[in-house]
Amino acid sequence: MLHRTMLVPLLLAGVFGSLFTVGLEHVALSPSSGLAHETPSMSPIFQAQQFELVDTTGAVRAVLRMAPEGTGPEVALLDESGRRRITMTENTEGEYGFLILDAASALRFGVGTTKRGFVGLNVRDQHGVIRSNLYANDDGSDTGFRTWDSDGRVRTKLGAVESDPSTFAVRVFDEQNQVLWQAP
Questions:
Q1: To 5 degrees, how large is the angle CA 59–CA 61–CA 66?
Q2: Can you tell me the distance from the alpha carbon of 125 to that of 149, in angstroms, rounded to the nearest whole number?
Q3: Most buried of the four, 23, 97, 138, 178, by CB within 10 Å?
Q4: What domain count does the chain have?
């Protein structure tokens, strides 16, 4: 048996449910929404200069936007303090790279391509100086693995010899980029 105390909440739920459904149909199918004339296979298009993903506290933790540097689109993951920690972005040459930054916002790892016909993977120290990289030119003229000193000079290389790209060697360089030792 239905008690009077149960009848009022049930009636209110029915009324609010009906109003919500009618309102949703009105918004979704109004001519200004653009959905009234679409076929079921078409998706709506959303445009914005920036989309943000926020956590439960409202802090922005990820961003899809046009890069503030003006270089093109960027996808960025942010730490709890709002600093960029990982980005995928277009570089100044119109190519793309993937970067990882540390908590102090120093660039620590990067991989990308260039229009000059080069692809590389760089590992950097806490000051952003490249300390090692794996790289290749598209034409095969130079490819290998290098280590760098703290002043940004190549000190060792395992890879193609520039004067003969078909020859691979291990080389150690001095501060003036002269070969100190090589094998073979």
A1: 115
A2: 10
A3: 97
A4: 2
